[in-house]
């Protein structure tokens, strides 16, 4: 069961990367590109329609809306464009991870959080 869930999570991640690449591809119709970008942004965004702290319902929107949006967009994209972007997504998946860039992003977020809390303390 756990192994199957991991496989589905990897498949979903691969589909999201393909979707993102299709959203940037000029061969995809503009309306489909916009919808693909919205689905990818919703999937990667920490903000949900139903917050995750609400039991069951919080995760239900992630389990239903994201796969449904991916399925719709993938049906609307021309097959040859979809296959090209799937190959590109596989190539990108096999690239090495840049830990230095990741660490820089984390440091920026820590700095911004620190600055925000200092700013809040002025008012209290």
UniProtKB/TrEMBL annotation:
Record key words, sorted: Membrane, Transmembrane, Transmembrane helix
Gene Ontology annotations for the cellular component aspect, listed alphabetically: endomembrane system
Classification via InterPro entries: DUF1232
Tagged with keyword Lyase: no
All residue ranges annotated as the DUF1232 domain in the record: 33-68
Location of the protein in the cell: Endomembrane system
Lipid bilayer topology: Multi-pass membrane protein
TM spans (from-to): 53-77, 98-121
Main location class: membrane
The protein's name in its UniProt record: DUF1232 domain-containing protein
Organism: Paenibacillus mucilaginosus 3016
């Amino acid at each position: 069961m756990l192994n199957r869930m991991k496989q589905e999570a990897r498949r979903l991640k691969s589909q999201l990367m393909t979707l993102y690449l299709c959203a940037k591809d000029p061969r995809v119709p503009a309306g489909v590109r916009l919808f693909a970008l919205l689905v990818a942004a919703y999937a990667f965004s920490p903000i949900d329609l139903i917050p995750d702290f609400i039991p069951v319902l919080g995760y239900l929107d992630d389990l239903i809306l994201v796969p449904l949006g991916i399925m719709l967009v993938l049906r609307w994209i021309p097959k040859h464009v979809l296959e090209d972007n799937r190959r590109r997504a596989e190539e990108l998946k096999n690239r090495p991870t840049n830990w230095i860039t990741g660490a820089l992003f984390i440091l920026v977020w820590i700095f911004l959080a620190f600055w925000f809390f200092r700013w809040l303390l002025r008012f209290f």
